[in-house]
Write a structure and sequence with these properties.
The complex is a heterodimer of chains A (94) and B (405). Helix content of chain A is 65%, strand content 0%. Chain A is globular, with a radius of gyration of 12 Å. In chain A, helix 2 crosses helix 4. The longest helix of chain A is centred in the first third of the chain and has 16 residues. Chain A is an all-alpha fold and 94 residues long. Helix content of chain B is 34%, strand content 20%. Chain B is built from 13 helices and 15 strands. In chain B, helix 7 crosses helix 13 and helix 10 packs across helix 11. Chain B is globular. Classes of the chains: A mainly alpha (94), B alpha/beta (405). At the A-B interface, helix 4 of A face loops of B.
Chain lengths: 94, 405
């Protein structure tokens, strides 16, 4: 898996969002059409073990380290989880 | 014997070995002298002239363990869980009921998650791939004990015993001590190991203790051991706890002895081994003549077999002439931390069947190993008591004595 370049990541936030969703689908083994902003970990059947797998894949793809701070650790719905992840990617790449 | 001391019974036994999943295929292979040693199959490349081992082939952990649990289980833990399920089922303890705070879980292992350790190193240093996020819980040596504890809701003391090739035997002996001391009523005990990996093989090869062709315990032409992998798990219960449940005891665990040579770390010592055997007999309140069969440590190395034979002579004296002593390591390999537990399963079956399994691959008498090692074929032996020996690097000796229930 190739690591994204800093330029790519910063110039195209939508693509980053889509790539994070891709990872949620593949690592969390969920149907893509269920991945909506209002979806929650519960409705997707995502357990903590799946979240760790997703975060590990994100770290690898974007070459970032995602500490378990409040915004991500307390997320129970997909929107706040993805927002937390995107924020982390952006701040590491800036 | 202290009559006030609670008696300890084995009410369930389980095994996973190169002979197959279960105590039955292990016993059948041991009884028939049918070796499960074969060409090595490894996940990562090995440059070595040693190409054999007793591996569990075609093992599909997903057929036995739920995916959410499996992610946390290294191969050694997978074996322990499979063997544990068999032991608990035989004891009549279903997974649905939580065993609670009066059940201990003590599982020995020499290394722990060897495969996870090696893969982590391989990814970190060689391929640059991501390291499995569950590496730490997978590789920790208490992984097997903790998984079994969680699986059966056993909330009593839980830990791993790490004493190389004596790990399984010491874990079983400790479980019996916990019950006798009144700390628990029941203990899930045994040993598990899965360290036949490319780097693990190199380590053993460097010690010059591996045979390139055959494990031939007590035979003059012996040239080393063959590694094995697997697990043996038992349910131990106090007499009272077993009776309350109406559980049928398979055997009594009547004696345990352990000692340390406190000398050379890798060279076996006859006096330390003899001391552990004598302690186990004293613990069981038995004279040496009461033992009807000994399942020897019998690795097939020059040093171990000679030292063990000398120790047996010290303990049994003239009686050794009439005592069948065999090593089943040519069948299931040297299971290291699982070895004593796998061999206790063989010893248990030998006791129950009244059959001493043979020492396979034996060809030539060695004056340094002057004992009746049951060469060639199994033999019917009426026995009330049987002994199982384990001797380990680090100078650790551990011996268990089983009796008819």
């Amino acid at each position: 898996m190739s690591t994204e370049t800093k330029e790519n990541i910063l110039s195209d936030p939508q693509r980053v969002y889509d790539q994070v969703v891709d990872l949620i689908v593949t690592e969390g083994m969920v149907d893509r059409d269920k991945v909506t902003p209002e979806a929650t970990f519960d409705t997707l059947g995502l357990k903590s073990i799946d979240i760790v797998m997703i975060l590990t894949a994100v770290e690898e793809k974007f070459d970032v380290y995602i500490p378990m701070d409040g915004s991500i650790a307390e997320a129970r719905d997909l929107k706040s989880f993805i927002d937390g992840v995107l924020q982390r990617i952006a701040s590491e790449k800036n | 014997m202290d009559v006030t001391r609670p008696r300890v019974f084995i009410t369930g036994a389980g095994a996973a070995t190169a002979a197959g999943i279960g105590v039955a295929p292990l016993w059948e292979a041991a009884r028939e002298g049918r070796s499960a040693v074969g060409p090595l199959e490894l996940a990562r490349p090995l440059r070595s002239n040693i190409r054999i081992g007793a591996q569990i082939r075609g093992f599909d952990p997903a057929a036995h363990i739920e995916s959410g649990v499996l992610a946390f289980c290294d191969r050694f833990t997978q074996f322990a869980v499979v063997a544990g399920d068999e032991a608990l089922a035989q004891a009549g303890l279903a997974r649905g009921e939580r065993l609670g705070p009066r059940t201990a879980t003590i599982v020995g292992t020499g290394i722990g998650g060897a495969d996870t350790i090696e893969l982590g190193m391989h990814n970190a240093y060689v391929t640059g791939q991501r390291v499995d996020p569950w590496s730490v819980p997978r590789l920790m040596p208490n992984g097997a004990a903790s998984q079994l504890s969680a699986r059966y809701g056993a909330q009593g003391p839980s830990f791993a015993v790490a004493s190389a090739c004596a790990s399984g035997t010491q874990a079983i002996g400790l479980g019996a001590h916990f019950i006798r001391a009144g700390l628990v009523d029941r203990a899930i005990v045994g040993g598990a190991e899965a360290c036949i990996t490319a780097s693990g093989m190199k380590g053993w090869e460097a010690l010059r203790v591996l045979s390139p062709d055959f494990c031939r315990p007590f035979s003059k032409d012996r040239n080393g051991m063959v590694l094995g992998e697997g697990a043996g798990i038992f349910v131990l219960e106090s007499e009272e706890a077993a009776r309350r449940r109406g559980a049928e005891p398979l055997a009594e665990l009547c004696g345990y002895g352990t000692s340390s040579d406190a000398a050379d770390i890798v060279r076996p010592d006859a006096s330390g081994a003899a001391s552990a055997m004598s302690q186990a007999l004293d613990d069981a309140g038995l004279p040496p003549g009461a033992i009807g069969y000994v399942n020897a440590h019998g690795t097939g190395t020059l040093a171990n077999d000679a030292a063990e034979a000398a120790a047996l002579h010290r303990v049994f004296g003239e009686g050794l002439r009439r005592l069948p002593v065999s090593s089943t390591k040519p069948i299931h390999g040297h299971g290291l931390g699982a070895g004593g537990a796998i061999e206790l399963a063989v010893t248990l079956m030998a006791l129950r069947a009244g059959i001493a399994p043979p020492t396979a691959n034996w060809t030539t008498p060695d004056p340094k190993c002057d004992l009746d090692c049951v060469p060639g074929q199994a033999r019917e032996v009426a026995m009330r008591y049987a002994m199982s020996n384990s001797f380990a690097f680090g100078g650790i000796n551990a011996v268990l004595v089983l009796g008819q229930p």
